[in-house]
Design goal:
Elements (H helix, E strand, L loop, with lengths): L1 H5 L2 H8 L10 H4 L4 H6 L1 H4 L26 H5 L1 H6 L18 H9 L1
Length: about 110
C-alpha cells in the first residue's frame, strides 16, 4: 500500500490512459456540480481516472474533517453504478484532492 501512495500522478496516468471520461458523461455533469465545486475537485484535473479512484474528491468529503479516503459513498453513487462495472473500488491517486483536515486548513490560514 505504501508503494501505491508514493506513485506520482504521471505514473498513474501512464498506466490508465489519457482520459477516462472520453465518450462518457463526466461525474460533474451527472451530479450537477456547480462550477465552484468542479474547479476545486481533483476529478476535473485528473481526468485519466474515474472519480471513485481519486482520494479527496468533493463527494467523499464531509463537514467533520474527512480526508476523502472513504469510498463507501461511491458504492451507492449513480456514476459508479453506471461506469464502475461492478469492480471493487480502489483509490489510486492520493494527496491531490481537497483537504478538509482542520489542522491543514489552520496551517494554510496562518500563511
Amino acid at each position: 500500500m505504501a508503494e501505491t501512495k508514493t506513485r506520482k500522478a504521471a505514473e498513474v496516468k501512464e498506466e490508465r490512459g489519457v482520459n477516462f471520461w472520453i465518450d462518457k458523461s463526466p461525474c460533474w455533469d451527472l451530479c450537477n456540480c456547480p462550477e465552484m465545486i468542479k474547479g476545486e475537485c481533483p476529478v476535473a484535473k485528473y481526468q485519466f481516472l474515474p472519480c471513485w479512484e481519486i482520494e479527496g474528491t468533493y463527494c467523499k468529503l464531509d463537514d467533520r474533517g474527512a480526508t476523502g479516503k472513504d469510498t463507501s459513498i461511491c458504492e451507492t453513487c449513480r456514476v459508479y453504478k453506471k461506469y464502475g462495472n461492478g469492480q471493487p473500488i480502489v483509490l489510486k491517486l492520493f494527496g491531490k484532492g481537497i483537504n478538509t483536515h482542520l489542522e491543514e486548513l489552520d496551517r494554510v490560514a496562518r500563511k
